[in-house]
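ok trying this again, last paste got cut off
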Amino acid sequence: MFKFITEAAAPNFNAIKDVTLVENKELGTKDMYITGIFIQCLVKNRNGRIYDKMVMEQAVAKYVQERMSDPQGKLRSYGELGHPEGVEINLHRVSHMITELTWQENDVYGKAKLLDTEYGRIATSIIKQGGQLGVSSRGLGELSKGPANQNIVTQFELIAEDIVADPSAPEGYVEGILEGKEYILQGGVYTPVNTKKISRAYEGLENRMESLPKKDVDAYILNAVKKFFKEI
C-alpha cells in the first residue's frame, strides 16, 4: 500500500537559493527561474524519515523520463503553489514547471520556470517583494522501520516539486504522511482506497471460510470470493 508523502519540514524543506530573469525573445518579456536543492537523501528529517539514495535515484530517473523527456521538448513537470492533499496535479493551481534536475552527491539540484498563471504570478510577486519561498517534494511511497525506529522510505514515486512558504515554526506544516490517504496501483494509475472497507471485506471472507458447508464446497468458495471482490 502506498502512502501520500510530503516533505515540507526541514531539512527536507529546501529554500530557493537563486532567482534569475531570462529574456524571452519571442514574447519580448523576461521569464523568472528559481534554482536550488529540490531533494535531499540520507538525511533524517523532522518526522524521522530517511530517503535511500538508490530509491530516490530511481524515482527521479522515472520522473525525468516520463515528464521531461518529450522528443519535441514539451514538459509535463508541473508543480503547484502549496501542497494539495492528493496525488493529482491540479492545473488551476500550477505555478511552475521544472526544467532541470541534476544530482550533486546526495542532493538533487533543480531549476524551475515560474509560469504566467494565477498561482505563478502569486509566487513571482512574493519573490519580487523579498519573500522567502522553498521547494518541497510530493509523492507516494512505502515505509519500513529501521534499526533505530526511524522510517525508511523503501519505495517512492515522485509526483511533483511544489513551492511552499518558508515557515517561522515547523509545526505550521502538515505532517509528512497523511494516514487517511492510501493508494493502490491499478492499471498504471494510483487509485485512493478505503482501507476500512477493504478490512471489512477481508474479515467477511475469513468468516465465510470458517463456515464451510459439507456439500458443494467449491461453489461456496467461488461465491465467497466473488462477494469479496464486489465488496472491495
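PB: full thing came through this time. Residues 167-180 have pLDDT under 50 and may be disordered.
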